[in-house]
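Two quick folds needed for the group meeting slides. Do the first one here.
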Amino acid sequence: MTPFEAIRRLETTLAAAGLTESRIEAEALVMHVLGMNRTALYMAWRDPIVSDEQRESLNALGNRRLRREPLAYILGHREFYGLDFLVDERVLIPRPETELLVDLALETARSMDMAGALTVADICTGSGAIAISLAINLPRAVVWATDISRDALEVASANARLHGVEQRIHFAHGDLLVPLSTQFDILVSNPPYVPKDILKALEPEVLREPSLALDGGEQGLSVIRRLLTQAARGLTDSGVFLMEFSPEQAEGIAGLAAIEFVGAQVGIVRDLAGMDRFLIVRTAHRARG
């Protein structure tokens, strides 16, 4: 069997099951089984290189996808911010929109006039994608990352080793900022923010991800309320807090932030689709005394 034939067969099977990105996913699975990148795949496009064993592997992986297991879990990795991260059922799959949260954190860090090392903490780190992206792009920063899931921290630690920053990121197990005993210049978080009452209506693939990383409780704000309270105490006097949320939560979150961060500058940043997506709080504007 040729790669072309393998892809066409798998694409047809996935499309018949209603998977909208069947061609892209079929190519990804074939490249995974053959151990090829896209260039090598196309160079061998019509060569009969797919063995019987590889064909069986493709059938098995295709069946997992038909059961709506996320493609990233099947492949075992996901690209984020130009880096490759290990992912499995222990962690939320990094989303492209969260890359803008990293952009905002990097812009903030580079605008700060720091005499010493910048301190950054990623709260609800999951796979470690945010913390590791920041550590790589801010080589002088001291980075911490917390998560309430020990399983998630195992994945995050493995990713830190993969990218050579395991000595620069301090991982801490616990709820939000509770395991941290100091203040930070930048706090960044992509917390659970899906309202509990709509969880069951999400796509089957999303429901395969850890509920702990998705379930935001009532109105999706249960975790966020606690996070805002803790973050208000966890920032330095010139610190910045950055957080992702769902667009319909913007007004409520801005109001909660204004209450917790008295006198601080509270703003909302839109994503590339023009949707309200990120909270930014600057404590340099907070009233002192």
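Then this one, please, same format:
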Amino acid sequence: MLTKEVLLVLGLLSVFCTFSRALYYPDLDEKEFDRVVDGSKPALVEFYAPWCGHCKNLAPEYERLGEAAKSVKDVIVAQVDADKHSNLAKRFGVQGFPTIKWFDKKVDKASAEDFSGSRTAESLADFIHQKLGRTNVIRLPKEEVHVVELNPENFDKIVLDPTKNVLVEFYAPWCGHCKALKPQYEKVAKTFKDSSDVIIASLDADANRDIAQRFDVSGFPTIKFFPATKKKDVVEYDSGRAAVDFVRFINKHVGTDLDVGGMPSAEASRIKALETPVREFIKAKGRNLEKAKGAVEEVISRDPSLKGQLKRNAKYYLKVMEKYAQNGEEYIVKEIQRLENMLKNEEGNITDSKRANFLRRLHILKSFLSNDTEETYS
């Protein structure tokens, strides 16, 4: 039988759990929706589709808002996969993605208001504060910023430095497209934060119109690439505005081999021009070493795209060929196992630079495997 003291403790725990429950629901379904968005508290709800590009761009911003809302008792922040829960989307007249709706306290859900501001965590938080009539209800954590902010004093020193490859976004603070680009552009800057010769920068071109005019900036955002040693050959960036698009652009123009996040990708680390020499080398079981090395060296000397890290990667192919010729595919298999074990066992104990180099070697080594063996390590 439960004593009065035990019942009191259980009651207090129940109350504590009720009031300390996080009010961020990143995967609200049809069964839970009316229980959570019940009119007792206002709610901001995003209806998204997993395949939607704009939704993917919004995701880190909305998650940042949601995480900050966990410590707030006055408002609910939620997300609904409208592709999976299409009945909810139809119920609230969702016709495009993402759609963000504000469900006010004690107001009929059918009259929910659409959010039409810029899709940043700051803008969403400001909208919530406006609706609540209070400020600082949701306190967003400060983000690490890796984009270099340019101004008249440092522009030429940074952008025209002949040792640096500089990507510059010319933006205006009021520009919606610029605001939408911000989280993607920051991902790019974070990807190249450890690269000694790559700088990701931005300039408020509205406040610094003389610099904007100097570089023929007539719309926002305008993005230009200033290559090292060839500052007069400015490249107008006209590709996609997802982080992966910018990273591929820089890989191509600088000779880097990174994926979004800062680690080398298999696709970028391997040299496409060396695929044929490698296949012929494997087919000959390494017996045509000198011929294969000659083919690789010719590509290295003649291919203008092989510079920086990619050129170093190409030279690693030569080392692998020599080892293969001496020890056969057994060397490749053992070296792959050794590197994979080091990455696994030394997790947290190796620098990002070492991890990147191990991954580069792995990517290149696996291109030397025969088709049958490659399936084991793919």
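Slide caption for protein two: Residues 6-22 have pLDDT under 50 and may be disordered.
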